């Protein structure tokens, strides 16, 4: 457990270091994800310990967004002032992005038999 | 006996108080979500945020102080992002088979998100500050804040818009996909991850691992694409 937590943090640390050194426009953790991914490719399987640490982190990932989200109280004034443009823009562009990406992807992969489901 | 105010003052000096309050608020959110029969709009994260904002306003606690206390949770976003490599690896065969389709769909979706959000906000009379902060709203927080800062928007506003976008995409995105009849897990995951980053991915992982893997991949790739392309497009137009 502790070993794999160390591995995850190490990937992130290397990611952060590379980002700073080479001025990448991407955050350290995304590079860390790439490093861990290539590590897994080389290893050829996911160790059990890593699975359990990873699943713990991922199963409540949405909890981790709360501290930043509470920051809405600092920006309440600006949001209130432009509530209509901000809300309309946010809702329409998010739904548009989901519909376009989903339709394009399913159209481009239509010949491959990928199981279909509704939620 | 000490007065309640002194007690609060004392407790709020360590991260314990704000960590605990954040977890409690989230548990209440989860409880209400289950109770409602998992209605998308009864979103646990949204409920937790509302409860915490009310609490901070009532107690007169500045946001900075809360954030300092709860920053451990915020920090864990980093390791969680690294851990997304695991579902991605497990689904690698499927991802590899559709690499070209993924690239095309993702770049198109990413452009649609940024361009439409700026155009709509601009057409409705939004200020430059607000549409600069809206443009990277589909990208995971640390990257989008960096992009906004570079363009001259308000990073803390972006963080909030990113999270609202995430909640919206995670909760109502599946309904949008049902309406346009997108059925495959790969396409559903990719769409949600492109539009609603980590919050969308967290939700997808709970529904189906394949959808979660595509979502996590889309989140990472969209961060990369937007971080590189948005500033270029912006300076090219203006």
UniProtKB/TrEMBL annotation, chain A:
The domain of life is Bacteria
Keyword Membrane among record annotations: yes
Q: How does it sit in the membrane?
A: Multi-pass membrane protein
Subcellular locations according to the entry: Cell membrane
- Asked if Lyase is a keyword of the record, the answer is no
GO cellular component terms attached to this protein's record:
plasma membrane
User: Which InterPro entries would you find in this protein's record?
Assistant: LrgA/CidA
Q: Please give the PANTHER family that the UniProt record associates with this protein.
A: HOLIN-LIKE PROTEIN CIDA, HOLIN-LIKE PROTEIN CIDA-RELATED
What protein am I looking at? Holin-like protein
Automatic annotation (TrEMBL), chain B:
Q: Which domain of life is it from?
A: Bacteria
One Pfam entry name: LrgB
Transmembrane annotation, as ranges: 16-33, 45-63, 69-89, 101-124, 159-180, 213-237
- The parts of the chain that form a coiled coil are none
Q: Which InterPro entries match?
A: CidB/LrgB
Report how it sits in the membrane. Answer: Multi-pass membrane protein
Query: Which GO cellular component term is one of those annotated?
Result: membrane
Annotated compartments: Membrane
Primary localization class, coarse: membrane
Q: Which UniProt keywords apply?
A: Membrane, Transmembrane, Transmembrane helix
Question: Which PANTHER family does the annotation name?
Answer: PLASTIDAL GLYCOLATE_GLYCERATE TRANSLOCATOR 1, CHLOROPLASTIC, PUTATIVE SEROTONIN TRANSPORTER
Protein name in the entry: TIGR00659 family protein
UniProt source species = Cohaesibacter marisflavi
């Amino acid at each position: 457990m502790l070993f794999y937590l160390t591995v995850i943090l190490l990937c992130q640390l290397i990611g952060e270091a590379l980002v700073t050194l080479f001025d990448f426009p991407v955050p350290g953790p995304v590079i860390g994800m790439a490093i861990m991914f290539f590590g897994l490719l080389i290893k050829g399987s996911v160790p059990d310990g890593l699975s359990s640490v990873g699943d713990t982190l991922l199963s409540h990932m949405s909890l981790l967004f709360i501290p930043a989200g509470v920051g809405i109280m600092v920006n309440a004034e600006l949001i209130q002032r432009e509530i209509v443009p901000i809300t309309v823009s946010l809702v329409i562009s998010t739904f548009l992005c989901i519909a376009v990406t989903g339709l394009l992807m399913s159209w481009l992969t239509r010949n491959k038999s990928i199981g279909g489901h509704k939620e | 006996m000490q007065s309640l105010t002194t007690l609060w003052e004392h407790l709020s000096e360590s991260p314990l108080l704000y960590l605990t309050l954040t977890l409690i608020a989230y548990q209440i959110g989860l409880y209400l979500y289950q109770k409602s029969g998992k209605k998308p709009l009864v979103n646990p994260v949204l409920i937790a945020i509302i409860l915490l904002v009310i609490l901070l306003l009532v107690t007169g606690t500045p946001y900075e102080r809360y954030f300092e206390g709860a920053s451990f949770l915020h920090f864990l976003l980093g390791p969680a992002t690294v851990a997304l490599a695991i579902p991605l690896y497990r689904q690698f065969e499927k991802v590899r088979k559709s690499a070209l389709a993924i690239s095309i769909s993702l770049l198109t979706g990413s452009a649609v998100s940024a361009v439409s959000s700026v155009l709509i906000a601009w057409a409705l009379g939004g200020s430059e500050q607000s549409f600069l902060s809206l443009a990277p709203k589909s990208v995971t927080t640390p990257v989008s804040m960096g992009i906004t800062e570079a363009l001259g928007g308000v990073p803390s506003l972006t963080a909030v818009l990113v999270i609202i976008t995430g909640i919206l995409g995670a909760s109502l995105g599946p309904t949008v996909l049902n309406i346009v009849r997108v059925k495959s897990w790969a396409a559903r995951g990719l769409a949600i991850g492109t539009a609603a980053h980590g919050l969308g991915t967290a939700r997808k992982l709970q529904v189906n691992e394949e959808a979660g893997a595509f979502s996590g991949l889309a989140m990472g790739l969209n961060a990369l694409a937007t971080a590189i392309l948005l500033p270029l497009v912006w300076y090219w137009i203006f």
